[in-house]
Amino acid sequence: MQENKKFKLVSSKKTRYLLPNILTLAGVCLGISSIKFSIDENYSLAVIFILLAAILDALDGRVARLIKGTSEFGKELDSLTDFVSFGIAPVFILYFWELNSYGKLGWAITLIYSVCCALRLARFNLTKIDNQLWKSNYFEGIPSPAGGILILMPLIFEISGLNLNIDIKSYTPYFTILVAILLVSKIPTLSLKKISISPKATVFILLGIGVIFISLLFYTFEALLIFCSVYLISIPVSFFMYKIRSKKEALENSEDEHEDVL
To answer: Which of 15, 51, 199, 260 keeps 20 to 30 A from 232, CA to CA?
Structure first.
């Protein structure tokens, strides 16, 4: 006689997979909603929704690893969500704000950015980390969430109300193309995924996070502009750091091979 089985949406052993996937789905809802707000010309809320989507994108993977809820399904879902939230939504916001004034050229720039983001995500999914663990602290090119926020810098600048006598809108097409190139480039950028933190520095890190949170809460767009500028400056810095570390690693390997021969 067969035992009666209660219907369950997921088995009890797999419930831990739900939370990170819920965060991922919330992120894609935020990304799509940002397009709606940009159509309504509520650009402030559209930018905030992209920022929230980026925060959720940073959290879902870490939560999945923390609760041991990683899965192939979650990985694919996260990749598709990234394309919608950071490959389509931000550039559509820019299109409704400024790029549509360039006609066919503006739409071409919109498509170029989306294609570059899709290529970047496809390459990331196929990237295999080699035995040199220090390389796992670097991305090839800028990640899609960073790109999705960076291309909004001209819009963020206008919303912030800073009066620097700069016609920021005229730079929007060029800046969008630049970020698209950075997405598909092989320039090493810091990922900070496996940076070891000293227990003594924990208090200062928490203080820094608190300052960032307060800045975003009370000076949202000004703080975003500063963070984006700092990130842009960090790109050449991370490039030189990567090259120095790579040369050091190559030198150590050559010395080890020389010792083995002797």
So the answer is: 199
Residue carrying structure tokens 């609760």? 67
* Lowest model confidence (mean pLDDT) among 43-57, 172-186, 209-223: 209-223
Domain ranges for the chain: 15-255
Give the model's pLDDT for residue 126: 80
The region of weakest confidence among 111-115, 127-131, 216-220 is 127-131
Element (H, E) at 58: helix 43-66
* Number of neighbours of residue 171 by Cβ within 10 angstroms: 15
The pTM of this model reads: 0.85
Cβ neighbours, 10 Å, residue 45: 14
Place of tokens 């170029």: 112
Whole-angstrom CA distances from 210 to 50, 92, 200, 207, 226 are: 21, 32, 17, 5, 16
Calculate mean pLDDT across residues 83-87: 93
What is 85-129 written as a DSSP string?
IIIIHHHHHHHHHTGGGGTHHHHHHHHHHHHHHHHHHHHHHH---
Asked if 86 and 145 touch (Cβ cutoff 8 Å), the reply is: yes
Closest by CA position to 224, among listed 151, 169, 136:
151
Superfamily of domain 15-255: CDP-alcohol phosphotransferase transmembrane (TM) domain (1.20.120.1760)
